[in-house]
Amino acid sequence: MATRVLIPNGAIGLGFDEAALWRGVAMRPDIICVDGGSTDSGPHYLGTGTSKYSRASTRAEWRVLMQARAHAGVPLVVGSAGTCGTDATVDWMHDITRELARELGQDLKVARLYSEQDGASLARALDAGRVTPLWPELPISAGVLGECTHIVALAGAEAIQAALETGADIVIAGRATDTASIAALPLMRGEDAGAAWHGAKIGECGALCTSNPTSGVIVIDFDDTGFTVRPMAEGARATPDLVAAHMLYENADPDILHEPGGHLDVRGAIYEQADETGVRVTGSRWVGSGDYTVKLEGARAAGHQACSLVLLRERRYVEQARAWCDRLATHLESEIRARMGLEPDAYAMELRRIGQDATLGPLERAASAPCEVGVLAIFTASDQATALGLAKLANPFLLHDPLSDDEPQATFAFPFSPVEWDRGPLHDFCLNHVLHVTDPMKQFRLEVTNV
Questions:
Q1: What superfamily would CATH give domain 301-429?
Q2: Residue 38: predicted pLDDT
């Protein structure tokens, strides 16, 4: 018995080819699975418990998926709802679902799987030795756990299965591994475990493993010896190279993928062109560990930021932008000490040269000079008023500071007014650990409602 999974795209909010989606629905899938989350854009979203993607784009895509689910008569699952998978974003997604159910005239059973964790409970687990670090190791203590604004555990396939077993039409899961929602049903139905986890990894980003990655939609058939992946967009193809390459994506080891309860080993995997558009994969192996762990993600407040942007266009300054920034930083440090009474350990200052080396800094190897350079000044302090005060103090120096003391005063350009803007609270990731549990559902809460 094979299990067919329809995957619309790599994350709700990215868009997908609707014609390709309905082509996939016509293939009579057993389930529709989509990821909703990512840490790609940093810790702000977990720190604030908000979605990276807009409500409008999320709602528009979810509306189509709810229609597709109703037509197919199968469960629809979203993992890591609202980007970060906090309780608040699960409820945010649930609110969207309720609105759309009324609009579409659908009566639904909806299961919400909550992944958020209590810092005090985790502190007790830490004392008991049940919280261990991953590499790179970050310092952890009850104090660090208490500083977190939000902590989530990444649910595995077992938690998604528990939600599916309620008979829910729609499962809205909090933070989960990218693969969990796709692997859950094939594993429930006894398909090969290695194939289930490997296919889920290949499918987690939708059509990224195909010749038309932006189309989004793929179908994966799982069975007792392997899996077959096919894109649904017109003219798109999966190839052995493209499918195999996805094991490199967001994975430290292209042969091993760690999940709760074990790891996937693809060193023996065989990738073959199944037909004109599909790829067949066999030989993947699941290795159980006997120790069930869930990864923890936590974010905490790390100060406040304010920024300014100035544009350098005069050739001499463009060619010597790094020297100008070095001189300016020294000058500003002195002025901040004199005027605000702040030593360098009380704030942080960055001058990023946009258009020159803002991405790589001193590692940049490009030799040609651009026609202009934007200098983004970023000030971080313990409170917003101080951060903004630092940015305001820097204003005249960003606009006029010369390369040397023995030349006329320079004038550069601010692209907008006011020059400074508040970035607001800053967050950082502070957990890179796993929690050892005896029950895969112990850290998760399930709530089922009729909508």
A1: Ribosomal protein S10 (3.30.70.600)
A2: 83
